[in-house]
Specification:
The complex is a heterodimer of chains A (about 425) and B (about 180). By secondary structure, chain A is mainly β. Chain A has 6 helices and 26 strands. In chain B, about 40% of the residues lie in helices and about 5% in strands. Classes of the chains: A mainly beta (about 425), B mainly alpha (about 180).
């Protein structure tokens, strides 16, 4: 308010690091500056603005369609889809994943229809009237709740990311896969979850002093089950009934999901039907055979529950193409299971020099955080873009080589290394392991 | 511990009064702040719903089976995805790789990687076979578990697997796991 709007040409575009990175404040106060556009798929130039006013389009000359009971995305955005990865084909079609198209989204909240999926035995169609939650084990009073009863409880709302610990696994392949950002890193999504604080029901049941862990179980055909220490789960766990304002969708756990902010996706048990309080973990198949990290020594790290600090530049990213020289905005996402993102540094010269990106407010704990930094690209200038996030605990990302050295060959869970995108002289953007 | 000390100080009259007061509250729980809408689960309901199995065998049901009995059950229900002899197919390899974990090409199977035998029964009972979960009887699950342990060279063909013997099976990678120090 009151500040004079300046044109792009009248503000100094100060270079802050190599490769064309500009001061993160360069866009502030910029009015209708023309920014370079990015096209996905690498084909053709960005479309020019059409000459509105000279030719009246049909949608302005006739009344539009009437109201509807439930909205849908624009028809012209129908290409923005999850990428479905069915690992076992027809033999087990419901065992697999679908990834959020991170490269096509902005802001920090994932639309419900684009939240990633990871199912072990498909999506159950649960009748909420025939579903209940049992809370038992080392408690003073074992309890059963209907969904209607849970809906009457005092609720809490919080925003947090959920990330599958198998996220980014394509980047452990020996050659960098040339697939979209979301196909590599899109087993992370961020929602506003609402439901009953886990603590509230644990208090009602009364935890026995010998109760140290909870074992949560879903009602899907895999009856997915995971153990979590109470000290990790109880403080901010939610028995979630709503996602981004509406009741949780079937593929996200309808009617009830255990949401444990910051912990690996698999323990955020969907279709939750039972919580058993126990003195130790059950060592289920999904916390021994799977979701464990094999180390070079041959030992394996178990219960790597808190997701590490991580970031990725979503635009530009692999599969896109720069549309001519000029000013662009680098945009990306950062998150940490340990709390808030403190800073994100960006490099355009493969890590030789770094500059801090602007973090979009509000920066929420254990949530996706949007970062942005302006960038000037010149035709013929090879560039290597990287982002490196640091959280409020001081945790920061490693290079791919440093990350891989911690684990046995082929181990892919909990991948959170720095991502590099190479912008080739002709503007094509590629996934690269160079650093 | 502190609570017990306080109790002795308070004296029996106070305790009796407190007990009367507590029992008058809905559901007898004075600490909860919620509306206490849940009802008490009966032992029968818990018994029916609780399928959790601990590595020490708690939760395992009655029943029994041997590898010799489990072979045809495996071939009929499991081999289509996991391969004949557990060598793998569209789904995970289940047999072999013992001693490979520290090598440049680690092979993770039931035999080489799983620290306990109890998750065999637990996982098969809750999730397998993929297209017909919960269709196998406890005897069949014990027998298939015995067969997979036998294919891995861990038990003999006629060793009976039941609720007592399964948790006692010594898996080759029993000491192969460390709790991640970063989990807090």
């Amino acid at each position: 308010m009151g500040r004079k709007r300046s044109s792009l040409h009248s503000i100094p575009l100060s270079k802050v690091a190599g490769g064309g990175l500009l001061d993160r404040r360069a866009f502030l106060g910029v009015g209708s500056a023309t920014l370079g556009a990015l096209a996905s798929g690498g084909a053709g130039a960005a479309s020019e603005p059409s000459l509105l006013g000279y030719e009246m389009p049909e949608w302005t000359k006739t009344p539009g369609r009437p109201m509807g009971p439930y909205g849908e995305p624009a028809r012209h955005e129908s290409a923005v889809q999850r990428a479905v990865q069915a690992r076992y084909g027809a033999i087990a079609p419901g065992a697999g994943a679908s990834t959020t198209p991170l490269q096509a989204l902005e802001g920090t909240i994932t639309p419900n229809g684009l939240h990633f999926e990871r199912h072990h035995s498909g999506i159950p169609e649960i009748d909420p009237n025939r579903h209940s939650l049992m809370l038992h084990g080392l408690v003073k009073r074992p309890l059963i709740f209907s969904i209607d009863q849970l809906l009457r409880y005092s609720m809490t709302t919080r925003t947090c990311f959920i990330e599958c610990s198998g996220n980014s696994a394509p980047n452990v392949l020996s050659e960098p896969p040339q697939i979209a950002c979301g196909e590599i890193h899109g087993l992370v999504s961020c929602s506003e979850w609402s439901g009953v604080p886990l603590n509230l029901l644990l208090d009602e049941a009364g935890i026995d002093p010998s109760g140290r862990w909870l074992v949560a179980e879903g009602a899907d055909a895999a009856a997915m089950s995971r153990s979590v220490p109470l000290e990790l789960a109880a403080s901010d766990g939610i028995l979630a009934l709503y996602q981004n304002g509406e009741r949780i969708r079937p593929e996200q756990g309808y009617p009830l999901r255990l949401v444990l902010p910051g912990l690996e996706g698999n323990v955020n048990v969907k279709w939750l039907r039972r919580i058993k309080i126990s003195d130790g973990p059950a060592h289920t198949r999904d916390e021994t055979s799977k979701y464990t990290d094999l180390l070079p020594s041959g030992k394996a790290a178990q219960f790597t529950l808190r997701m590490g600090v991580k970031s990725v530049i979503t635009r530009p990213s692999a599969g896109m193409a720069m549309q001519g020289p000029g000013l662009y905005e680098i945009s990306g996402l950062a998150w940490s299971g340990a709390g808030r993102i403190a800073r994100v540094d960006v490099s355009a010269d493969g890590g030789k020099s770094w500059a801090p990106a602007a973090l979009q407010d509000p920066v929420l704990s254990k949530s996706l955080t949007r970062f942005r930094i302006p960038f000037e690209w010149k035709t013929g200038r090879p560039v290597q873009l990287q982002s490196r996030a640091t959280d409020e605990q001081g945790n920061t990302q490693l290079t791919r080589d440093e990350w891989a050295a911690q684990y046995a060959q082929g181990s892919y869970y909990h991948y959170n290394a720095i991502q590099s995108w190479k912008v080739e002289p002709d503007g094509k953007v590629l996934n690269t392991y160079d650093s | 511990m502190n609570r017990r000390v306080e109790t002795t100080r308070l004296g029996w009259q106070t305790i009796a009064l407190a007990a009367l007061f507590l029992s008058a509250l809905p559901n007898g729980n004075a600490l909860a702040e919620g509306p206490e809408l849940g009802r008490t689960a009966t032992p029968e309901e818990i018994d029916r719903a609780d399928i959790t199995i601990s590595p020490d065998g708690r939760g395992l049901p009655p029943g029994r089976g041997t590898a010799a009995e489990g072979k045809h059950i495996y071939l009929a229900n499991c081999a289509r995805c996991h391969g004949v002899g557990g060598k793998g197919g569209p789904a995970d390899r289940l047999v072999g790789g013992i001693g490979s974990l520290a090598s440049p090409r680690p092979i993770k199977t039931v035999g080489s990687y799983w620290p306990y035998a109890t998750p065999l029964f637990d996982y098969i009972r809750r999730a397998m076979p993929y297209d017909r979960p919960t269709s196998l009887s406890s005897d069949e699950i014990y027998a298939v578990s015995a067969y997979l342990l036998h294919l891995n060279g861990i038990v003999s063909e006629n060793f009976e697997i039941n609720r007592i013997t399964l948790p006692r099976v010594e898996m080759p990678n029993r000491d192969g796991f460390v709790t991640n120090p970063g989990w807090r």
